[in-house]
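Hi, here's the filled form for the chain we discussed.

Project: internal
Contact: R.S.
Residues: 459
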Amino acid sequence: MAEATSKVQSIRIGIGIPTRDFRTITTHENGRIQKTVIQQEISKSTFDSYATDSVLSDLIAQKPGVAPDGSDDRYFVTVMDAGVLTNAADFEFDVAISKSGPTSLGTQLDNLQLDALEDSTNIGRFTWRDELKRFQHNERTGEDPVQTQFTISSDDFDIKGKRNEKYENLFYPEDIRDTNQDRIRFSMFYQSGRSLSFDLQDGNNPFTFGERKVTTIEGSVTLPIQSGIQDTNQVDYQRGQLNPITGALASIALDPLQFGSQIVNILNMDAGRIRETLKSDASQNIINALRVYLAQTAVGTQGLIPRTTGAILNPNMELLLQAPQLRSFQFNFTMSARDSKEASQIRKIIRFFKQGMTVKRSQTSLFIVSPNMFRIQYIRDNDSSQDHPSIGKIKDCALTAINTNYTPDGTYMTFDDQARSMTSYQIGMQFTELEPLTESDFLEGDRPGRVPNPESVGY
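And the returned structure, exactly as it came back:
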Protein backbone atom coordinates (compact mmCIF):
# COMPACT_ATOMS: atom_id res chain seq x y z
CA MET A 1 0.00 0.00 0.00
CA ALA A 2 1.08 3.59 -0.64
CA GLU A 3 0.34 6.94 0.97
CA ALA A 4 -0.56 10.23 -0.71
CA THR A 5 0.08 13.20 1.56
CA SER A 6 -1.45 16.50 0.49
CA LYS A 7 0.04 19.94 0.79
CA VAL A 8 -0.89 22.00 3.85
CA GLN A 9 -3.74 24.41 3.17
CA SER A 10 -5.30 27.19 5.25
CA ILE A 11 -9.07 26.81 5.49
CA ARG A 12 -11.64 28.98 7.27
CA ILE A 13 -14.01 26.63 9.07
CA GLY A 14 -16.55 29.17 10.30
CA ILE A 15 -17.54 32.82 10.60
CA GLY A 16 -15.34 34.60 13.13
CA ILE A 17 -13.05 31.57 13.52
CA PRO A 18 -9.42 32.04 12.47
CA THR A 19 -8.22 29.92 9.57
CA ARG A 20 -6.65 26.57 10.36
CA ASP A 21 -4.06 24.61 8.42
CA PHE A 22 -4.91 21.05 7.36
CA ARG A 23 -3.38 18.23 5.37
CA THR A 24 -4.71 14.81 4.37
CA ILE A 25 -2.97 11.44 4.27
CA THR A 26 -4.66 8.88 2.04
CA THR A 27 -3.68 5.22 1.99
CA HIS A 28 -4.42 3.51 -1.33
CA GLU A 29 -3.70 0.30 -3.19
CA ASN A 30 -4.39 -0.69 -6.81
CA GLY A 31 -6.51 2.40 -7.42
CA ARG A 32 -8.64 1.85 -4.32
CA ILE A 33 -8.66 4.09 -1.25
CA GLN A 34 -8.10 2.15 1.95
CA LYS A 35 -8.02 4.87 4.60
CA THR A 36 -8.07 8.66 4.99
CA VAL A 37 -6.55 10.66 7.84
CA ILE A 38 -7.12 14.40 8.36
CA GLN A 39 -4.48 16.29 10.33
CA GLN A 40 -4.53 19.84 11.67
CA GLU A 41 -1.31 21.79 12.10
CA ILE A 42 -0.52 22.82 15.70
CA SER A 43 2.14 24.89 17.42
CA LYS A 44 5.22 23.34 19.02
CA SER A 45 3.96 24.19 22.51
CA THR A 46 0.67 22.40 21.81
CA PHE A 47 2.60 19.49 20.34
CA ASP A 48 4.73 19.25 23.48
CA SER A 49 1.67 19.27 25.73
CA TYR A 50 -0.04 16.56 23.65
CA ALA A 51 3.13 14.46 23.84
CA THR A 52 2.65 14.07 27.58
CA ASP A 53 -1.00 13.02 27.25
CA SER A 54 -1.48 9.25 27.06
CA VAL A 55 -4.51 9.63 24.74
CA LEU A 56 -3.33 12.42 22.46
CA SER A 57 0.28 11.34 22.16
CA ASP A 58 -0.67 8.68 19.58
CA LEU A 59 -2.35 11.32 17.39
CA ILE A 60 0.54 13.76 16.91
CA ALA A 61 3.06 13.85 14.09
CA GLN A 62 6.16 15.88 13.34
CA LYS A 63 7.39 16.73 9.85
CA PRO A 64 10.94 18.06 9.94
CA GLY A 65 12.57 20.62 7.71
CA VAL A 66 9.48 21.88 5.88
CA ALA A 67 8.87 25.29 7.48
CA PRO A 68 8.97 28.23 5.06
CA ASP A 69 12.52 29.10 6.12
CA GLY A 70 13.61 25.46 5.93
CA SER A 71 14.67 25.35 9.58
CA ASP A 72 11.75 24.74 11.93
CA ASP A 73 9.71 21.58 12.00
CA ARG A 74 5.94 21.50 11.49
CA TYR A 75 3.63 19.74 13.91
CA PHE A 76 0.30 18.05 13.30
CA VAL A 77 -2.43 16.25 15.21
CA THR A 78 -4.97 13.83 13.70
CA VAL A 79 -8.51 15.19 14.06
CA MET A 80 -10.28 12.56 11.95
CA ASP A 81 -9.22 8.98 11.29
CA ALA A 82 -11.15 6.82 8.80
CA GLY A 83 -14.21 9.05 9.07
CA VAL A 84 -14.24 9.11 12.89
CA LEU A 85 -13.49 12.19 14.97
CA THR A 86 -10.59 11.83 17.39
CA ASN A 87 -10.19 13.26 20.87
CA ALA A 88 -8.15 16.10 19.34
CA ALA A 89 -11.11 17.39 17.29
CA ASP A 90 -12.87 20.35 18.92
CA PHE A 91 -16.49 21.47 18.61
CA GLU A 92 -15.82 23.96 15.77
CA PHE A 93 -14.22 21.26 13.64
CA ASP A 94 -17.08 18.85 14.39
CA VAL A 95 -19.63 21.43 13.22
CA ALA A 96 -17.64 22.42 10.11
CA ILE A 97 -16.97 18.87 8.91
CA SER A 98 -20.69 18.01 9.11
CA LYS A 99 -21.68 20.73 6.64
CA SER A 100 -21.88 20.22 2.90
CA GLY A 101 -21.55 22.50 -0.09
CA PRO A 102 -19.00 23.60 -2.71
CA THR A 103 -17.01 25.73 -0.22
CA SER A 104 -17.46 23.56 2.87
CA LEU A 105 -14.56 22.17 4.89
CA GLY A 106 -15.31 18.62 3.71
CA THR A 107 -15.27 19.63 0.03
CA GLN A 108 -11.96 21.49 0.41
CA LEU A 109 -10.39 18.52 2.19
CA ASP A 110 -11.67 16.22 -0.56
CA ASN A 111 -9.97 18.46 -3.13
CA LEU A 112 -6.71 18.22 -1.15
CA GLN A 113 -6.96 14.44 -1.27
CA LEU A 114 -7.69 14.42 -4.98
CA ASP A 115 -4.72 16.70 -5.71
CA ALA A 116 -2.39 14.47 -3.69
CA LEU A 117 -3.69 11.25 -5.25
CA GLU A 118 -3.41 12.61 -8.78
CA ASP A 119 0.11 13.95 -8.18
CA SER A 120 1.41 10.72 -6.65
CA THR A 121 -0.12 8.27 -9.14
CA ASN A 122 -0.73 7.89 -12.85
CA ILE A 123 -4.49 7.91 -12.26
CA GLY A 124 -6.50 10.99 -13.24
CA ARG A 125 -8.48 13.19 -10.89
CA PHE A 126 -11.82 12.22 -12.42
CA THR A 127 -11.25 8.53 -11.63
CA TRP A 128 -10.08 9.31 -8.10
CA ARG A 129 -13.19 11.46 -7.54
CA ASP A 130 -15.47 8.51 -8.25
CA GLU A 131 -13.35 6.28 -6.04
CA LEU A 132 -13.47 8.82 -3.19
CA LYS A 133 -17.28 8.95 -3.38
CA ARG A 134 -17.46 5.15 -3.34
CA PHE A 135 -15.06 4.91 -0.42
CA GLN A 136 -16.78 7.57 1.67
CA HIS A 137 -20.20 6.00 1.13
CA ASN A 138 -19.00 2.50 1.92
CA GLU A 139 -17.14 3.85 4.94
CA ARG A 140 -20.42 5.21 6.32
CA THR A 141 -22.91 2.55 5.27
CA GLY A 142 -21.06 -0.48 3.97
CA GLU A 143 -23.22 -0.31 0.82
CA ASP A 144 -22.67 0.77 -2.77
CA PRO A 145 -23.79 4.37 -3.29
CA VAL A 146 -26.80 5.62 -5.20
CA GLN A 147 -25.50 8.86 -6.68
CA THR A 148 -27.82 11.80 -6.13
CA GLN A 149 -25.04 14.33 -6.68
CA PHE A 150 -22.29 14.62 -9.25
CA THR A 151 -20.21 17.31 -10.91
CA ILE A 152 -18.55 17.17 -14.30
CA SER A 153 -15.94 19.86 -14.69
CA SER A 154 -13.91 20.99 -17.67
CA ASP A 155 -10.90 20.59 -15.37
CA ASP A 156 -11.52 16.83 -15.45
CA PHE A 157 -10.44 16.83 -19.10
CA ASP A 158 -7.01 17.85 -20.25
CA ILE A 159 -8.16 19.66 -23.39
CA LYS A 160 -6.17 22.59 -24.66
CA GLY A 161 -6.47 23.74 -28.23
CA LYS A 162 -3.49 25.00 -30.17
CA ARG A 163 -4.43 28.56 -31.09
CA ASN A 164 -2.78 31.88 -31.87
CA GLU A 165 -3.46 34.36 -29.07
CA LYS A 166 -1.80 37.41 -30.61
CA TYR A 167 -2.79 39.27 -33.79
CA GLU A 168 -2.09 42.77 -35.05
CA ASN A 169 -4.50 45.70 -34.79
CA LEU A 170 -5.57 45.93 -38.43
CA PHE A 171 -7.38 48.79 -40.21
CA TYR A 172 -9.03 49.34 -43.57
CA PRO A 173 -8.79 51.87 -45.00
CA GLU A 174 -5.48 52.30 -43.25
CA ASP A 175 -6.00 55.98 -42.48
CA ILE A 176 -9.25 55.30 -40.59
CA ARG A 177 -7.20 54.91 -37.41
CA ASP A 178 -6.36 58.63 -37.42
CA THR A 179 -9.85 60.00 -38.09
CA ASN A 180 -13.00 60.45 -36.04
CA GLN A 181 -15.04 58.44 -38.51
CA ASP A 182 -17.60 56.08 -36.99
CA ARG A 183 -16.46 52.50 -37.40
CA ILE A 184 -17.05 48.85 -36.59
CA ARG A 185 -14.46 46.83 -34.72
CA PHE A 186 -14.08 43.05 -34.52
CA SER A 187 -12.06 41.41 -31.76
CA MET A 188 -11.71 37.80 -30.61
CA PHE A 189 -11.72 35.76 -27.43
CA TYR A 190 -12.00 32.12 -26.48
CA GLN A 191 -13.76 30.49 -23.58
CA SER A 192 -13.24 27.35 -21.56
CA GLY A 193 -15.83 24.71 -20.87
CA ARG A 194 -17.79 24.90 -17.63
CA SER A 195 -18.79 22.53 -14.89
CA LEU A 196 -22.17 20.81 -14.74
CA SER A 197 -23.52 19.89 -11.31
CA PHE A 198 -26.51 17.66 -10.66
CA ASP A 199 -28.13 17.41 -7.24
CA LEU A 200 -31.43 15.61 -6.77
CA GLN A 201 -31.59 16.98 -3.24
CA ASP A 202 -31.87 20.54 -4.57
CA GLY A 203 -35.59 21.22 -4.72
CA ASN A 204 -35.21 24.40 -6.78
CA ASN A 205 -32.97 23.42 -9.69
CA PRO A 206 -31.16 20.08 -9.86
CA PHE A 207 -28.92 21.31 -12.71
CA THR A 208 -26.45 24.15 -12.19
CA PHE A 209 -23.71 25.38 -14.51
CA GLY A 210 -20.42 26.96 -13.52
CA GLU A 211 -18.94 30.07 -15.05
CA ARG A 212 -16.90 29.94 -18.24
CA LYS A 213 -13.39 31.38 -18.18
CA VAL A 214 -13.03 33.96 -20.96
CA THR A 215 -9.58 34.78 -22.39
CA THR A 216 -9.17 37.83 -24.62
CA ILE A 217 -7.07 37.43 -27.78
CA GLU A 218 -4.83 40.36 -28.60
CA GLY A 219 -5.53 42.23 -31.82
CA SER A 220 -8.56 43.49 -33.72
CA VAL A 221 -9.92 44.51 -37.12
CA THR A 222 -11.42 47.97 -37.66
CA LEU A 223 -13.50 48.68 -40.75
CA PRO A 224 -15.85 51.45 -41.93
CA ILE A 225 -19.54 50.97 -41.22
CA GLN A 226 -21.25 49.60 -44.30
CA SER A 227 -24.71 50.32 -45.66
CA GLY A 228 -27.61 47.95 -45.06
CA ILE A 229 -27.25 47.89 -41.26
CA GLN A 230 -30.12 45.94 -39.73
CA ASP A 231 -31.01 43.50 -37.00
CA THR A 232 -34.01 41.31 -36.30
CA ASN A 233 -35.16 40.53 -32.77
CA GLN A 234 -37.41 37.50 -32.72
CA VAL A 235 -39.18 35.29 -30.19
CA ASP A 236 -40.99 32.15 -31.33
CA TYR A 237 -44.59 31.57 -30.25
CA GLN A 238 -46.98 28.80 -31.12
CA ARG A 239 -50.74 28.57 -30.93
CA GLY A 240 -51.97 26.50 -28.01
CA GLN A 241 -55.50 25.27 -27.39
CA LEU A 242 -57.27 23.31 -24.70
CA ASN A 243 -60.94 22.52 -25.15
CA PRO A 244 -63.07 21.70 -22.11
CA ILE A 245 -63.07 17.95 -22.79
CA THR A 246 -59.30 17.54 -23.14
CA GLY A 247 -58.89 19.77 -20.09
CA ALA A 248 -61.11 17.48 -18.08
CA LEU A 249 -59.34 14.37 -19.34
CA ALA A 250 -56.01 15.89 -18.35
CA SER A 251 -57.00 15.49 -14.72
CA ILE A 252 -56.59 11.75 -15.19
CA ALA A 253 -52.85 12.27 -14.85
CA LEU A 254 -53.42 13.91 -11.45
CA ASP A 255 -55.69 11.25 -9.94
CA PRO A 256 -56.54 8.54 -12.49
CA LEU A 257 -58.36 6.18 -10.09
CA GLN A 258 -60.62 8.84 -8.61
CA PHE A 259 -61.34 10.45 -11.98
CA GLY A 260 -61.96 7.13 -13.68
CA SER A 261 -64.53 5.97 -11.15
CA GLN A 262 -66.35 9.32 -11.22
CA ILE A 263 -66.50 9.62 -15.00
CA VAL A 264 -67.85 6.07 -15.37
CA ASN A 265 -70.63 6.83 -12.89
CA ILE A 266 -71.56 10.06 -14.68
CA LEU A 267 -71.56 8.52 -18.16
CA ASN A 268 -73.94 5.79 -17.01
CA MET A 269 -76.52 8.30 -15.70
CA ASP A 270 -79.48 9.37 -17.75
CA ALA A 271 -79.89 13.03 -18.68
CA GLY A 272 -82.54 13.72 -16.02
CA ARG A 273 -80.39 12.29 -13.28
CA ILE A 274 -77.40 14.31 -14.53
CA ARG A 275 -79.37 17.57 -14.40
CA GLU A 276 -80.62 16.73 -10.93
CA THR A 277 -77.12 15.83 -9.72
CA LEU A 278 -75.21 18.72 -11.27
CA LYS A 279 -78.00 21.30 -10.82
CA SER A 280 -77.43 22.68 -14.32
CA ASP A 281 -79.45 22.67 -17.54
CA ALA A 282 -76.18 22.70 -19.48
CA SER A 283 -74.95 19.47 -17.89
CA GLN A 284 -76.67 17.29 -20.52
CA ASN A 285 -74.69 19.04 -23.27
CA ILE A 286 -71.45 18.53 -21.33
CA ILE A 287 -71.98 14.81 -20.83
CA ASN A 288 -73.22 14.22 -24.36
CA ALA A 289 -70.19 16.07 -25.76
CA LEU A 290 -67.93 13.96 -23.58
CA ARG A 291 -69.62 10.76 -24.78
CA VAL A 292 -69.19 11.75 -28.44
CA TYR A 293 -65.57 12.82 -27.87
CA LEU A 294 -64.68 9.52 -26.23
CA ALA A 295 -66.48 7.64 -28.99
CA GLN A 296 -64.55 9.34 -31.80
CA THR A 297 -61.29 8.79 -29.91
CA ALA A 298 -62.05 5.11 -29.51
CA VAL A 299 -62.66 4.53 -33.22
CA GLY A 300 -59.93 6.89 -34.41
CA THR A 301 -62.13 9.28 -36.32
CA GLN A 302 -62.54 13.06 -36.21
CA GLY A 303 -65.38 15.57 -36.44
CA LEU A 304 -68.21 13.68 -34.77
CA ILE A 305 -69.08 16.63 -32.55
CA PRO A 306 -69.54 19.19 -35.39
CA ARG A 307 -71.35 16.50 -37.45
CA THR A 308 -73.84 15.82 -34.67
CA THR A 309 -74.18 19.30 -33.15
CA GLY A 310 -73.24 21.74 -35.92
CA ALA A 311 -70.78 23.38 -33.51
CA ILE A 312 -67.27 22.82 -32.25
CA LEU A 313 -65.83 22.76 -28.76
CA ASN A 314 -64.41 26.07 -27.58
CA PRO A 315 -60.68 25.68 -28.26
CA ASN A 316 -59.65 28.33 -25.67
CA MET A 317 -56.84 29.31 -28.00
CA GLU A 318 -53.81 31.23 -26.74
CA LEU A 319 -50.46 32.26 -28.15
CA LEU A 320 -47.83 30.49 -26.05
CA LEU A 321 -44.10 31.12 -25.81
CA GLN A 322 -42.06 28.43 -27.53
CA ALA A 323 -38.46 29.68 -27.43
CA PRO A 324 -36.26 32.75 -27.84
CA GLN A 325 -34.25 33.00 -31.04
CA LEU A 326 -30.54 33.59 -31.53
CA ARG A 327 -29.94 36.62 -33.74
CA SER A 328 -27.77 36.42 -36.85
CA PHE A 329 -25.90 39.24 -38.59
CA GLN A 330 -24.60 39.49 -42.13
CA PHE A 331 -21.66 41.74 -43.01
CA ASN A 332 -20.27 42.46 -46.46
CA PHE A 333 -17.10 44.45 -47.02
CA THR A 334 -15.35 45.35 -50.25
CA MET A 335 -11.70 46.32 -49.84
CA SER A 336 -9.52 47.79 -52.58
CA ALA A 337 -5.89 48.54 -51.76
CA ARG A 338 -4.33 51.88 -52.65
CA ASP A 339 -0.75 50.79 -52.00
CA SER A 340 1.24 47.69 -51.08
CA LYS A 341 1.00 48.38 -47.33
CA GLU A 342 -2.77 48.55 -47.47
CA ALA A 343 -2.83 45.40 -49.61
CA SER A 344 -0.91 43.63 -46.84
CA GLN A 345 -3.45 44.88 -44.29
CA ILE A 346 -6.32 43.47 -46.36
CA ARG A 347 -4.72 40.03 -46.61
CA LYS A 348 -4.13 39.97 -42.86
CA ILE A 349 -7.73 41.07 -42.21
CA ILE A 350 -9.07 38.15 -44.26
CA ARG A 351 -6.70 35.79 -42.47
CA PHE A 352 -7.81 37.20 -39.08
CA PHE A 353 -11.38 36.07 -39.68
CA LYS A 354 -10.60 32.80 -41.45
CA GLN A 355 -8.03 31.65 -38.90
CA GLY A 356 -10.12 32.76 -35.93
CA MET A 357 -13.24 30.82 -36.97
CA THR A 358 -11.44 27.49 -37.43
CA VAL A 359 -11.72 24.67 -34.89
CA LYS A 360 -8.56 23.95 -32.93
CA ARG A 361 -6.65 20.69 -32.54
CA SER A 362 -6.28 19.22 -29.05
CA GLN A 363 -3.37 17.15 -27.78
CA THR A 364 -5.25 13.96 -28.63
CA SER A 365 -7.46 12.92 -31.52
CA LEU A 366 -10.38 12.38 -29.14
CA PHE A 367 -11.44 16.05 -29.13
CA ILE A 368 -11.41 19.11 -31.31
CA VAL A 369 -11.64 22.47 -29.54
CA SER A 370 -14.07 25.31 -30.16
CA PRO A 371 -13.03 28.19 -32.46
CA ASN A 372 -12.47 31.73 -31.28
CA MET A 373 -15.56 33.79 -30.58
CA PHE A 374 -16.02 37.39 -31.76
CA ARG A 375 -16.99 40.69 -30.22
CA ILE A 376 -18.50 43.24 -32.59
CA GLN A 377 -18.80 46.89 -31.63
CA TYR A 378 -20.13 49.89 -33.50
CA ILE A 379 -17.93 52.78 -32.34
CA ARG A 380 -18.65 56.48 -32.34
CA ASP A 381 -15.91 59.11 -32.74
CA ASN A 382 -12.97 56.68 -32.63
CA ASP A 383 -13.66 56.08 -28.92
CA SER A 384 -13.88 52.37 -28.16
CA SER A 385 -15.57 53.11 -24.84
CA GLN A 386 -18.48 54.72 -26.69
CA ASP A 387 -20.97 52.31 -28.29
CA HIS A 388 -22.80 53.98 -31.14
CA PRO A 389 -26.09 54.97 -29.44
CA SER A 390 -28.14 54.96 -32.64
CA ILE A 391 -27.21 51.47 -33.85
CA GLY A 392 -28.24 48.28 -32.06
CA LYS A 393 -25.49 46.59 -30.06
CA ILE A 394 -24.47 42.99 -30.71
CA LYS A 395 -23.77 40.34 -28.10
CA ASP A 396 -20.79 37.99 -28.33
CA CYS A 397 -20.95 35.96 -31.54
CA ALA A 398 -19.62 32.95 -33.38
CA LEU A 399 -18.50 33.41 -36.98
CA THR A 400 -20.43 30.65 -38.72
CA ALA A 401 -19.54 31.36 -42.35
CA ILE A 402 -17.23 33.54 -44.41
CA ASN A 403 -17.23 33.89 -48.17
CA THR A 404 -14.28 35.52 -49.93
CA ASN A 405 -14.63 36.84 -53.48
CA TYR A 406 -11.21 37.52 -55.01
CA THR A 407 -12.60 39.02 -58.24
CA PRO A 408 -15.59 41.15 -57.17
CA ASP A 409 -15.15 43.38 -60.24
CA GLY A 410 -15.70 40.39 -62.51
CA THR A 411 -12.14 40.33 -63.88
CA TYR A 412 -8.93 38.78 -62.62
CA MET A 413 -6.64 41.74 -61.91
CA THR A 414 -3.60 42.03 -59.64
CA PHE A 415 -1.07 44.66 -58.66
CA ASP A 416 2.48 44.28 -59.81
CA ASP A 417 3.80 43.75 -56.29
CA GLN A 418 5.69 40.76 -54.91
CA ALA A 419 2.50 39.22 -53.44
CA ARG A 420 0.54 39.81 -56.68
CA SER A 421 -2.23 41.34 -54.55
CA MET A 422 -5.71 41.34 -56.00
CA THR A 423 -6.96 44.79 -56.91
CA SER A 424 -10.10 44.20 -54.88
CA TYR A 425 -11.48 41.72 -52.34
CA GLN A 426 -14.97 41.18 -51.04
CA ILE A 427 -15.81 39.22 -47.88
CA GLY A 428 -19.27 38.21 -46.67
CA MET A 429 -19.54 37.01 -43.08
CA GLN A 430 -22.36 35.42 -41.12
CA PHE A 431 -22.29 35.83 -37.31
CA THR A 432 -24.70 34.32 -34.76
CA GLU A 433 -24.98 35.42 -31.16
CA LEU A 434 -23.97 32.88 -28.52
CA GLU A 435 -26.91 33.55 -26.21
CA PRO A 436 -30.45 34.84 -26.71
CA LEU A 437 -31.37 38.35 -25.67
CA THR A 438 -33.08 38.93 -22.33
CA GLU A 439 -34.32 42.12 -20.75
CA SER A 440 -31.35 41.95 -18.38
CA ASP A 441 -29.12 42.82 -21.34
CA PHE A 442 -30.98 46.12 -21.69
CA LEU A 443 -30.97 46.78 -17.94
CA GLU A 444 -27.53 45.50 -16.89
CA GLY A 445 -25.45 44.99 -20.03
CA ASP A 446 -24.36 41.66 -21.46
CA ARG A 447 -20.88 41.66 -19.89
CA PRO A 448 -18.93 43.49 -17.16
CA GLY A 449 -17.90 47.01 -18.02
CA ARG A 450 -20.52 47.41 -20.75
CA VAL A 451 -22.97 49.75 -19.02
CA PRO A 452 -26.27 50.23 -20.89
CA ASN A 453 -27.22 53.71 -22.08
CA PRO A 454 -30.97 54.31 -21.55
CA GLU A 455 -30.91 56.84 -24.39
CA SER A 456 -29.60 54.30 -26.94
CA VAL A 457 -31.61 51.83 -29.01
CA GLY A 458 -30.13 48.95 -27.01
CA TYR A 459 -29.83 45.68 -28.88
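Let me know if anything looks off before we file it.
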